[in-house]
Amino acid sequence: MTEKMVASHRWTAALVDLDGTLVDTRPGVRAAIAAAFADITGDGNASERADLSLPLDDMIRSIDADASASRLRLLSEAFRRHYDNVHWASADVYPGAEDFLRGLRTAGIRAFVATNKRTTAAQRLLEHVGLAQYLEGIVGQPDSGQPLPKSELIGECMATGGLDRATTVIVGDSDQDAAAASSWGMVFVAVTSGAGPLGHALVGEERVEVESLADATAIVMRRARGDQA
Question: Pick from 15, 42, 87, 209: most CB atoms within 10 A?
Fold first, then answer.
């Protein structure tokens, strides 16, 4: 565990990423991407080039940067059709995920999920794997329209939960999570064993790096008690 304790407030709430942090959805997402591109472009190997940490439209653009608006729409629709009908249920819960969320609840720490997955899809998945019971709220992308930046999803979660940024921590695995935390001036607990991609900390970023969700549990519990070292 690499620990650099920052800020002095006790943590009373946690905003947790879903894909790559609590649940490994990569096999299902890659399968749905491959099927969508095979349907629309004939490229069955497209998923190998995808940045899975991004919202759907941006994830598609990470494969096909020159996609027209009409092709992007067709690919998005095809992905959702394949993912929602078949591949969503292939996700695996990461080791320690349930213990982490259970520990937060036992300690009286309010837990929310903020995710680039659609809210409806995230709710179904979290119920399927048995983690929804530990969460006070789930905020994700809308079912239609333009995807929102992760920082806006964080803001929506903060507003609906009545949370204070000084006493709320963000737990995630990717540069997207890091950037969202930095934009709000919040501490980011980076789980380095997650799916990523996760680069070096940004200048001025308040980051604590942990190797596993078990280590994240220990960090959050200590800060909930007000311990600094």
Answer: 15
* Amino acid 224: pLDDT: 83
Give the amino acid at 60: I
The Cα 23–Cα 97 span in angstroms is 8
- Cβ neighbors of 181 (< 8 A, separation 6 or more) are 154, 170, 172, 187, 188, 205, 206, 207
- Are 198 and 173 within 8 A, CB to CB? yes
pTM of the model: 0.86
Q: Packing angle between helix 150-161 and helix 175-183, nearest 10 degrees?
A: 50
Contacting residues for 194 by C-beta, under 8 A, at least 6 apart: 17, 20, 21, 94, 172, 173, 174
Q: Is the separation of the CB atoms in 228 and 5 below 8 Å? A: yes
- The predicted pLDDT at position 86 comes to 92
